Amino acid sequence: MTSIAAKRRHPAAIAVVLLLGLIITGGLYAAFAPKDASAAPDNSQAIAAGHKLFLSNCATCHGLEAAGGDGGPSLVGVGAAAVDFQVGTGRMPLANPGVQAQHGIIVQFSTNEISQLAAYVASLAPGPAIPPADLTSGGGDIAKGGELFRVNCAMCHNFAGSGGALTRGKYAPDLMDVSGKHIYEAMLTGPESMPIFNDANLSPQDKKDIISFLMNVKTESSPGGWSLGNLGPVPEGLFAWTIGIGMMIAVAVWLGKKAA
Fold first, then answer.
1. Given Cys at both, which of 34, 49, 149, 185 links 81, Cβ 3.0 to 4.6 Å?
2. Is residue 182 part of an annotated ligand binding site?
3. Ordered structural domains, the chain, with CATH
């Protein structure tokens, strides 16, 4: 009888039993295994919403596929950080064509809508991500940040971040009213005439130190008196000529009339 049962057993029986065992084991593990709380959330809804916002507000200039269009550059590969900077500072949507996009007084989109637009552009190709809050909220080495700022940034933005003129009608903006997040994103993405400072040029800690220095400049007092906007020797010399020498001339004229 044993030999007859062995002859009737199908050759694939063992494989089928093993396969069923693996399926049952996998199902039990999937049902009872602890869930990973750090798993990345599904971003498809934000991407879809951002795509709709893009088509209705940005595609006219940047093209239906964000590959560039009528006056607008390609956004493929610029990353979420570029979108968050340009839209979050009110530079985009562009109000008026010109040599340089102006910092907007009013931001046209809500924080949630900006995140959706950034998610859509980030889905097109890899690019710089929005920096975490711990790198943009200060707390770095102020002295080192000041040194890095003077070496890399002061030639355009002034030694105290007050901005300055560039060529062909462009300018380096004042940094006193710019958030730490947008300063970090500007270093990552290089808007307008600004060069890109990636992590190979300035490490994340270096960027944090620069932001900390600028935050300190905003709050520190001027021990020398009136700072005249920290614009350097030109306004100081102009003040001396127009006000100081003007007062001296006025006093000399008054004394001359009195003597006469």
1. 185
2. no
3. 44-124 (1.10.760.10), 133-225 (1.10.760.10)
